[in-house]
Amino acid sequence: MGMGKMGFGYDPAAATAKQGGAAANNDGEAAKRFGTAKAISSDQYFQRGQYDEHENAQARERLSTFAGKSGFGSAEYYGRDESGPSRSSGGAADLGSVSEAARDFASKFVGQAADDFSSIKKVVAAGSTKLGEMLQDMQVRFEN
Asked: Mind telling me which GO cellular component terms the entry cites (predicted)?
């Protein structure tokens, strides 16, 4: 059991012949099992893991009901009822709490923005005062 030749000159037919032809037998079986499949997973090929043919058939049947549709959601795929909140008084109460929360957020945001604007105004005023002083100093220096 050494390392086989890889890269240029690698001959997969020679490699399977050295393995006793086990892969050749499996290929015939695989061709029978998956001859019409567009794609298969390694779990399907080696019959391991969570692959279940019955479950796969059910999934294909569910998908066939959506043929021709431009889109669908997972709720529709799995048959769940996930409709939104009703337009009854319960839904209106939810919207009321949302509008209250939005109003609170807006008032906090405006308050914070006013504080920030005030801070920026102070910084700009201090900067302009310093700039004015510096320009006066330059004028005095270069007049002489």
From this structure: Golgi membrane
Mean pLDDT of the chain: 75
For residues 34 and 40, is the Cβ–Cβ distance under 8 A? yes
As a whole number of angstroms, the distance between CA 126 and CA 113 comes to: 20
CA dist 47 and 34 (Å) reads: 12
Tens of pLDDT, residue by residue over 24-55, are: 455 678 788 778 888 887 777 777 766 677 88
| 62 vs 80: CA distance, rounded Å | 13
CA gap 67, 61 in Å, rounded? 10
Sign of the alpha-carbon dihedral angle for 74, 76, 81, 86: positive
